Amino acid sequence: MKLQTVSIFVDDQQRALEFYTGPLGFAVAADVPLGEHRWLTVVDPRQPEGTQLSLEPKAHPAVPPFTSALAADGIPYLVLGVDDVAVEHARLEAAGVVFTQPPVAMGPVITAVLDDTVGNLVQLAQFAG
């Protein structure tokens, strides 16, 4: 058994696709039209058979209040592991990405939090090895 796909709920699938494949550097794994929405997933381009991230539309009525409450409380919906948070923070900030938390050391992890432009906060995490 393996983790195949995880979902993040987004306000706009196209804008999410542009953000996740642009500044964040993911690659499209699937883009299948499904009427009003798409089955849209991205993946780490270095691991094309790895876990996919589904850019899921906020179509279910329970989703907008849930994701809005998380963002309002400053709680990231997703954690992405990086080798060096400071380097990624500088690179992404130079690309115009907005951070709600700059790099902060917290014990064995350094984190930073960014706004993904489609309704979510995303945490970057560097774990001490």
Commentary on this structure:
By secondary structure, the protein is of the alpha/beta class. It has helices spanning 13-21, 63-72, 85-94; strands at 5-10, 27-34, 37-43, 52-57, 78-81, 99-106, 109-115, 121-127. It has a 4-stranded mixed beta sheet, covered by helices on one side. The protein has a 4-stranded mixed beta sheet with strand order 5-8-7-6. The radius of gyration is 15 Å and the shape is globular. The two termini are 26 Å apart. The mean pLDDT is 96.
Task: Give a quick account of the main beta sheet: strands, pairing sense, barrel closure.
Answer: 4 strands, mixed
Number of helices: 3
| N-to-C series of helices and strands | EHEEEHEHEEE
Which regions contain 5 or more consecutive residues with pLDDT less than 50? Answer: none
CA-based gyration radius: 15 Å
Q: Alpha-carbon distance between the termini?
A: 26 Å
Number of strands: 8
Which bin fits the share of residues in helices? 10-25%
Write out the strand line-up for the largest beta sheet, numbering strands in chain order: 1-4-3-2
Residue-averaged pLDDT: 96
Helix/sheet category: alpha/beta
> How big a fraction of the residues is strand?
35-45%
Shape by Cα distribution: globular
